[in-house]
Write a structure and sequence with these properties.
single chain, six-stranded mixed beta sheet
């Protein structure tokens, strides 16, 4: 059951009908769209692309299970196995993606790679907080360049002061990312290499949804 859950929770890039990247969803949601016939699977085997509906993907999955099992993740159904896709394309949706990256706790942690920007150590998300460089009590705003990832110890030490007032230095000055930091992390994995040609770092921003 654990292996199945892991495969269904894998990330799948969603394209609109014009092949523009618009979001990332779980494999579970991607299969739901495929079964409802509102999306098709896209595979990239350079220099060729191919598209598949559910039935044709089921046939391809059988071949890959027999000859390329080590290269893929599989979801085990009662009578057959399905390869987890990496990219799906919506058949009617043509909306363009957002160009701004949402200011969220998850995106800030991803931008800073779970690294406290004062002591430089990496922590689990549960042990991190967000710090306002210029405290809100001093007029600091809720914006990318005023928020950093911070461990509890450093946050307590800094208190309601600026880094200069507390005698603390930042590891890296905070900036607003040009695309989703989480997608940038995914692109470093060979598992999601097929996403690259759909994600121009200077233009596309992918909105993440559960």
């Amino acid at each position: 059951m654990t292996a199945i859950a892991t495969a269904l929770d894998s990330h799948v890039l969603v394209l609109n009908k014009h092949y523009a990247a618009i979001r990332v969803v779980s494999a579970r949601r991607a299969f739901s769209m495929l079964l409802r016939r509102i999306a098709e699977i896209v595979t990239v085997d350079e220099p060729e692309w191919a598209t598949y509906d559910f039935e044709s993907w089921r046939e391809i999955s059988q071949l890959r299970a027999a000859y390329e099992r080590e290269r893929h993740e599989f979801v085990h159904c009662v009578r057959f196995e399905l390869v987890v896709p990496r990219i799906v394309r919506l058949l009617t949706y043509d909306r363009l993606p957002r160009r701004d990256v949402r200011l969220t706790r998850r995106n800030i942690f991803a931008r800073d790679r779970n690294r406290c920007q004062y002591c430089g150590k990496r922590f689990p998300t549960s042990e991190l907080s967000l710090d306002h460089l210029v405290p809100r009590s001093q007029g600091g705003r809720m914006e990318w360049t005023n928020l950093v990832c911070c461990c509890v110890r450093c946050n307590v030490r800094k208190g309601g002061r600026t880094p200069a007032q507390a005698g603390m230095r930042l590891i890296v000055e905070p900036v607003q990312p040009r695309q989703s930091p989480i997608v940038t992390i995914r692109l470093n994995s060979a598992k999601y290499a097929s996403w690259r040609q759909f994600l121009d770092a200077a233009y596309w921003n992918v909105e993440l949804r559960d």
